[in-house]
Each structure stands twice: as structure tokens, then as C-alpha cells.
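Budget justification aside, the reviewers requested a transparent look at the raw inputs and outputs of the sequence design task funded under Objective 1. We therefore reproduce one unedited record. The lines immediately below are the C-alpha cells for a 119-residue chain.
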């Protein structure tokens, strides 16, 4: 099976379903989504941790924790320049995922906002 091919419904065993759920949990935090959006919209394609902290308005430790999660999951990469660390999205398919998600969210916003199962 190639990278672009998703498993069929019948091929979804618990391990595959768990991996999918973990992937979406990486996107399941508002701060992480904002960080990805900021990186995707950056004119240079990357931003320093300090610029991300300033824009997000959260503590540096909290932003770094979220960036570490995104990095661990392979969604962002880093580049060091002196004492500054710069982040960029490592796979441009992240843009496609967020764009498609936005379309779906606009179509189902009321239901998503009122769902009591998803917190």
C-alpha cells in the first residue's frame, strides 16, 4: 500500500484506528491548530519560537510543548540559527487537511459546536 492510499474500511483494525485517532488528536488542540495556521501563513514559511509566543499570547513553555507535539508527530520541522529556533510545516498536505477541514466545519458548524461527546 502506498503512502497516498488509505486503508479500506475492512482493513481498519484497532491499531490502524488508534493511529488515525492519535493523528487527529495532534490536531485536536486549538493552540496547535493556530500554530500550524500561523506557520502556513508565514511569508517566509517559518517563524521563530519567540514570534509564535508573541502571536499566540501564551507562555513560552506552553507553546514549546505544543510545538514539540507537532514535531514529534512529523507535522513541523525546526531550524536553529544561533539561539533562535525556527519552525516550519514539514508536509504541505497539512494545508490541504486544514483547508478541507475548514470546508467541512463550515458545513457542519452547528452540530460540531453543540456535540457533547467531543470536548
Amino acid at each position: 500500500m502506498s503512502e497516498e492510499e488509505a486503508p479500506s474500511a475492512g482493513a481498519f483494525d484497532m491499531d490502524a484506528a488508534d493511529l488515525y485517532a492519535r493523528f487527529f488528536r495532534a490536531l485536536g488542540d486549538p493552540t496547535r491548530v493556530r500554530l500550524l495556521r500561523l506557520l502556513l501563513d508565514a511569508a517566509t514559511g517559518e517563524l521563530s519560537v519567540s514570534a509564535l509566543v508573541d502571536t499566540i499570547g501564551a507562555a513560552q513553555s506552553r507553546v514549546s510543548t505544543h510545538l514539540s507535539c507537532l514535531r514529534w508527530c512529523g507535522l513541523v520541522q525546526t531550524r536553529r540559527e544561533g539561539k533562535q529556533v525556527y519552525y516550519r510545516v514539514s508536509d504541505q498536505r497539512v494545508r490541504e487537511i486544514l483547508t478541507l477541514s475548514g470546508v467541512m466545519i463550515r458545513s457542519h458548524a452547528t452540530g460540531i459546536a453543540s456535540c457533547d461527546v467531543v470536548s
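The chain has a mean pLDDT of 91. The CA atoms of residues 57 and 63 lie 9 Å apart. Computational costs for records of this kind are itemized in the attached budget.
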